[in-house]
Design goal:
It contains eleven helices and 16 strands. By secondary structure, it is of the alpha/beta class. The strands form two sheets. The chain has an eleven-stranded mixed β-sheet with strand order 1-8-2-3-7-4-6-5-9-10-11, sandwiched between helices. Strands 14-13-15-12-16 form a five-stranded parallel β-sheet, with helices on both faces. Helix 1 packs across helix 6 and helix 10 (about 300-310) packs parallel to helix 11 (about 330-340). It is globular and about 60 Å long. Bound molecules: threonylcarbamoyladenylate (TXA) and magnesium ion. Threonylcarbamoyladenylate binds near residues 97, 101, 121 and 232. The site of threonylcarbamoyladenylate has 28 residues, from strand 5, strand 6 and strand 10.
Length: about 350
């Protein structure tokens, strides 16, 4: 397959978005930027088009996709009813990085393959203007998971996207690097309570401004045990993981945390092992090894950089990637949720 691209040097033109929308209408795959990460999209109403997404990603059939809409009318064609609390959340956070799981309409306008046969559907209205215009021009909701081969970190910059999907999709819309860098917050409202299934840029603290009844699902930070029932199928799968072993360390006491990191490095290096450290910029000079990468100086920067960094670590050929944790407050919860999976739950909290 030949992949067409939008013009990479100039701003994306109307005509190019029309070409991309045309591919969606024809039942083909288009990769497009959103404010969170790139999405690999298809017409959400066309089951054969959606099938291609699962194939291109190597995604498990029981893992449902998020449906992206450009306006509320589209939502109304898909869901049974928008509840009072959901309405408030929509008013406050849409368009933006919040996915709301809602009850699907009985007419099944959204095919079963999108929702993995569940009676619910995850919907979000992206704020990224390219994404918004693409959906509008296509005239249909777009089903789109993150653009990455299943198990790997989500694509957040055009170079990674090209490397992974050249020749596998019909069109790639180049939006440079995505603003946020982590996928949307996924929530479900039940009995006037919000359950956070996947943390993201819209934080627990922000959701609490709408209702005090906000819970973080236990599988956000805990590994799913065999036979355990999950609220979101995505929780069961391996995610964001490099092939190299990774480990995360965190303490509120930064000195103690750095001391522990240095102790681990020393121990490994004494036995001839190689370590790569990912840490906050301000801590790099206190870390006693030569291979160290700057994750960023604050949570927003770390969120934006982390998937790009994780995608690069395998090229370093080290024995261990030691990652500085960021805690669980505000955007820290979303970053920790991704890193804990990248580390296959090797998370040392002091
Ligand atoms: O920011 C984002 O959300 C990006 C961009 C492209 O919009 N998309 C994204 O999609 O991250 P994906 O497929 O990589 O992650 C969607 C997550 C999965 O963990 C899936 O299991 C969950 O949402 N999900 C989707 N529909 C669901 C449903 N009906 N019930 C429970 N979980 C659902
Ligand atoms: Mg994903």
């Amino acid at each position: 397959m030949i992949t067409k691209y939008s013009n990479q040097k100039e701003e994306i033109k109307k005509q190019e978005l029309e070409e991309a929308a045309e591919e969606i209408k024809k039942g083909n795959l288009v990769i497009f930027p959103t404010e969170t990460v790139y999405g690999i999209g298809a017409n959400a109403l066309d089951k054969n088009a959606v099938k291609k997404i699962f194939k291109a990603k190597g995604r498990a059939q029981d893992n449902p996709l998020i449906v992206h809409v450009a306006n509320i009318d589209m939502v109304k064609t898909i869901v049974e009813n928008i509840g009072t609390l959901e309405q408030k959340l929509i008013e406050k956070f849409w368009p933006g990085p919040l996915t709301i799981i809602m009850k699907r309409k009985d007419n099944k306008i959204i095919p079963n393959i999108v929702t993995a046969n569940l009676d619910t559907v995850g919907i979000r209205m992206p704020s990224n203007l390219i994404a918004k215009e693409l959906i509008e021009k296509a005239g249909v909701p777009i089903a789109a998971p993150s653009a990455n081969v299943s198990g790997k970190p989500s694509g957040t910059n055009i170079e990674d996207i090209k490397e992974e999907f050249e020749g596998k999709v019909s069109y790639i819309v180049d939006g440079g690097s995505t603003d946020i860098g982590l996928e949307s917050t996924v929530i479900k409202v039940e009995n006037d309570k919000i359950d956070i299934l996947r943390p993201g840029k819209i934080t627990k603290e922000q959701l609490e401004e709408v209702t005090k009844q906000v819970e973080v699902n236990k599988h956000v930070l805990e590994k799913v045990k065999k036979e355990e029932v999950v609220a979101s199928p995505g929780m069961k799968y391996r995610h964001y993981a490099p092939n190299t072993n990774c480990m995360m360390i965190y303490s509120k006491d930064e000195e103690k945390m750095i001391e522990k990191m240095n102790e681990i490095i020393k121990e490994l290096e004494q036995t001839g092992k190689q370590v790569l450290v990912l840490a906050r910029g301000e801590h790099l000079s206190n870390i006693v090894t030569k291979r160290k990468w700057n994750m960023g100086n604050h949570l927003g920067e770390i969120a934006k950089n982390i998937f790009t960094l994780l995608r690069k670590v395998d090229k370093e050929n080290v024995d261990l990637v030691l990652i500085e944790g960021v805690g669980e407050e505000e955007l820290g919860l979303a970053i920790t949720n991704r890193l804990i999976r990248a580390c296959a739950y090797r998370y040392l909290k002091l």
